[in-house]
Amino acid sequence: MMLAFAVVGGMLLDLLFGEPRRAHPLVLFGRLADSLEARFNPGGRGWRSHGVMAWSLAVLPWVLLTALLCQIGWLAWIIQPIALYLAVGLRSLGEHAEPVARALQRNNLPEARRRVGYLVSRETGELDETAVARAATESVLENGSDAVFAALFWFALLGAPGVVLYRLANTLDAMWGYRTPRLERFGWAAARLDDVLNYVPARLVALTYAGLGRFWSAIESWRTQAPLWDSPNAGPVMAAGAGALGVSLGGAARYHGEWHERPVLGRGPAPTFLAITRALKLVRRGAWLWTLLIALGGLLLA
């Protein structure tokens, strides 16, 4: 009963209020992460062991505290849905992606470039309409997996402690998990642990995209194209998503001043603004399907 109440409550809170505008706990957590990096990785000289220690100090106390608080009966009914609400980002994903689609629809390329820059880490100043639509569609598919589905997965599996573990680990990957001279050794643990936590959810997301879209196109894209992608989890998600939408994603992109040749994902024409809105619909339908299944599972196990 608790699981059903909490998953529906958390998703409804996100639907109604979206991401907190002030004092989001992840902002405070980011400051903690910065201070830990300064302590354990001064001048980029930290080793893998330092990264493991910093990751543990950043994440595990909060997971333990959440688990202890959830042992208090009445408090658990409050903490569980709020933890999911703070970890999931379904409404926020739409709030970031929809302005890109609207700008492209109005042929306002400068605004579309500016808006898509909030979603992706690649350079956007010289992107044309197709490249902007491609970047936004890829971001919706991948962030849908990271910010929505994986959070739901770990919440269903371990409740509030699980979703806190996942969200903090995913945040540290976004901060430390880069192959740069400063972070390559120190951030190794954050990147690998995020890969582990996302491994099963990513494949369930790929299956969800396939089931809610062009099934065989998604499955074939997943089977043949995902192994070529450099990320073990983003590959299945984006390949299946592109196949489900019937568009071609991937291809060359510029990151931090360097061009990266990426495999083509999916099958079909290049994306337009319509692909962004269709990707959002795919993620939303999948998220509410997962919410329903988790709630029903919670009721059956009560």
UniProtKB/TrEMBL annotation:
Superkingdom of the source species: Bacteria
Pfam families to which the protein is assigned, alphabetical: CobD_Cbib (PF03186)
This protein's name: Cobalamin biosynthesis protein CobD
NCBIfam families documented for this protein: cobal_cbiB (TIGR00380)
PANTHER family per the UniProt record, alphabetical: COBALAMIN BIOSYNTHESIS PROTEIN CBIB
Entry's localization field: Cell membrane
Pathway in which this enzyme or protein is active: Cofactor biosynthesis; adenosylcobalamin biosynthesis
Residues in the signal sequence: none
Stored InterPro entries: Cobalamin_biosynth_CobD/CbiB (IPR004485)
Membrane-traversing stretches: 52-69, 147-169, 282-301
